[in-house]
Design goal:
seven-stranded mixed β-sheet; alpha+beta; 12 helices; elongated; binds phenylalanine; BirA Bifunctional Protein, domain 2; about 350 residues; three-stranded antiparallel β-sheet
């Protein structure tokens, strides 16, 4: 009989149940009037008097263990039951406020994407730069007005260290480390010492591109710019190039696109001209190739640069530049659909 009690004790300790019905079945099997424990009580009567004490203790032990284990299972099953009862798989999820991409990121990604499809790869560089990469290596004369304190932010006590005022510095870094063919697109934040207003900010974003190889001509530049403008603003977009000047390109041009609002007829957006200026470009000056270790007798190239805020303005007609950096959620949420 002691053997039987031992075996039942092992059984009881290993009991498992998944539903309240399972638990009830176990209770009946072990603890009911006709259960295992009651059966032992009956057998107990025939146990010799001198052994009654030990048997009594063992049976009690078994009864307690069985009660405890069955109560434990009851509680465990009840806990999972409550979760299962509450689980409504058709309910809409907890209202999580979804963020939106910043309009400048949306526009930047779109532009980078167009150029990556044309074979350009991404290049990035530091915002805190030295004079060489921002100005000197790009053919800026020592007395060029852009180097002036009015335009450039200097890092105090380091006249040579500045905040880059254009991302052409990244192109300089690419040229000094890579031999052609070079095909890069350089997006990034730039800084200029200007009073903050609706039309100007002390920082903004640029995307510049550089293409250097053998036999690259102005024609290549023009064709790629046309393709880019049509991808960005639609297949009917026209471009026009006006002669301009940049220290690092020769010849240089300013590029306009046909007005994105009136298509060229003339409206308040294009101030009646039918054209909107969007970027600067030109053939890389041989002096720049030379300063950066590229042989100008073998290679030629073109470069272009545009302001991301400017393009975003044309796409979304944001009237005040400051809205891009104020992080007003009401403004940012307007771009949900474009995400
Ligand atoms: N770096 C010029 C700017 O900041 C833009 C530019 C880039 C012009 C490349 C021509 C070629 O305005």
């Amino acid at each position: 009989m002691l053997e039987k009690i031992k075996q039942l004790l092992n059984e009881v300790n290993a009991l498992q149940a998944a539903t309240p019905e399972d638990v009830e079945a176990l209770r009946i099997k072990y603890l009911s009037k006709k259960g295992e424990v009651s059966k032992l009580m009956e057998d107990f009567r025939s146990v010799p008097a001198e052994m009654k004490k030990e048997f009594g203790i063992r049976i009690n032990e078994l009864k307690n263990c069985a009660t405890e284990r069955i109560n434990e299972l009851k509680a465990a099953v009840a806990a999972t039951e409550t979760v299962a009862d509450d689980l409504d798989l058709t309910r809409t999820p907890y209202p999580i406020a979804l963020g939106t991409r910043h309009p400048l990121t949306i526009v930047k990604n779109e532009i980078v994407d167009i150029f990556s499809r044309l074979g350009f790869t991404l290049a990035e560089g530091p915002e805190v730069e030295d004079d060489w990469h921002v100005y000197s290596s790009l053919n800026f004369a020592d007395d060029h007005p852009a180097r002036d304190m009015q335009d450039t932010f200097f890092v105090e006590a380091h006249p040579d260290i500045i905040l880059r005022s254009h991302t052409s510095s990244v192109q300089a870094r690419v040229m000094e480390t890579t031999q052609p063919p070079i095909r890069v697109i350089c997006p990034g934040r730039v800084y200029r010492n200007e009073a903050v207003s609706a039309r100007a900010h002390c920082f903004f974003h640029q995307i510049e591109g550089l293409y250097i190889d053998k036999n690259v001509s102005f024609q290549d530049l023009k064709q790629v710019m046309l393709l880019f403008a049509q991808e960005l603003f639609g297949p009917d977009t026209q471009i026009r190039l006006r002669p301009s000047f940049f220290p690092f390109t020769e010849p240089s041009a300013e590029m306009d696109v046909s007005c994105t609002i009136c298509g060229g007829k003339g409206c308040s957006m294009c101030k009646g001209s039918g054209w909107l200026e969007i970027l600067g470009c030109g053939m890389v000056d041989p002096a720049v190739l030379e300063s950066n270790g590229i042989d100008p007798n073998v290679y030629t190239g073109y470069a272009f640069g545009m302001g991301v805020e400017r393009i975003a303005n044309l796409k979304y007609q944001v009237k005040d530049l400051r809205m891009f950096s104020e992080n007003d959620v009401r403004f940012l949420e307007e771009f949900k659909a474009a995400n």
